Design the sequence.
């Protein structure tokens, strides 16, 4: 069974631009979560989607948004990029919402904002 | 709110020596507990988890962790480490009821010296 895939793996953008990251969950998984990883702040929860609905959102500005499609694939968008948005963005999928379900992480998308 | 503290940011040990990576958590409600491992340039992999039952949980590669409710700890141990264990280790919690999001500690970088 294929794992969680994230595209692109690496991205370089300029301040002020916007970016869209994509995540394809493991087949059969319907819940997708996104995390931001930086050296300073560590791993922080961005949002969680299930059945095309955002169930939870972390403490990030409105420039960060996401969505989930009917096939469970998910995208996250960051508008008006800032230097501080440079990070590894990780997507995780699980069968369903709930801590009892193991979250499987993708390799991440490394975003560099210059 | 939940929080996780990993007491050591870096732990250097010699190959075949024992190691303990410390994790303490804070939560007013019951949580599930996890250890994740991140190898260079990769996403997170679940190492082991405590959901309920026996307080001692083991992974397939020789790691174990013990849930101590009174001390709110979930320390990770291995009796004899190998060079391949060099990685960053993250302790995390998630709510048993409610939001699925994982709250992570800051990570412990385990370095194995020959």
Sequence:
């Amino acid at each position: 069974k294929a794992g969680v895939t994230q595209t692109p793996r690496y991205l370089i953008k300029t301040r002020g631009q916007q970016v869209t990251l994509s995540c394809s969950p493991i087949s059969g998984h319907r819940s997708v979560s996104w995390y931001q990883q930086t050296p300073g702040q560590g791993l922080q929860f961005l949002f969680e989607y299930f059945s095309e609905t955002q169930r939870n959102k972390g403490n990030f500005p409105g420039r960060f948004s996401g969505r989930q499609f009917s096939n469970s694939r998910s995208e996250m968008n960051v508008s008006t990029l800032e230097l501080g948005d440079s990070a590894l963005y990780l997507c995780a999928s699980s069968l369903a919402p709930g801590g009892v379900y193991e979250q499987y992480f993708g390799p991440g998308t490394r975003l560099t904002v210059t | 709110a939940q929080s996780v503290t990993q007491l050591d940011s870096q732990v250097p040990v010699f190959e075949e020596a024992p190691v303990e990576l410390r994790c303490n958590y804070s939560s007013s409600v019951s949580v599930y507990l996890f250890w994740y491992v991140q190898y260079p340039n990769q996403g997170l992999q679940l190492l082991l988890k405590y959901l309920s039952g026996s307080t001692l949980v083991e992974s397939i590669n020789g790691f174990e962790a013990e849930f101590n409710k009174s001390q709110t700890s979930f320390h990770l141990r291995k009796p004899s480490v190998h060079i391949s264990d060099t990685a960053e280790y993250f302790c995390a919690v998630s709510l048993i009821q409610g939001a699925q999001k994982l709250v992570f500690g800051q990570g412990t970088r385990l370095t194995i010296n020959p």
Remarks:
- Chain B has a mean pLDDT of 92.
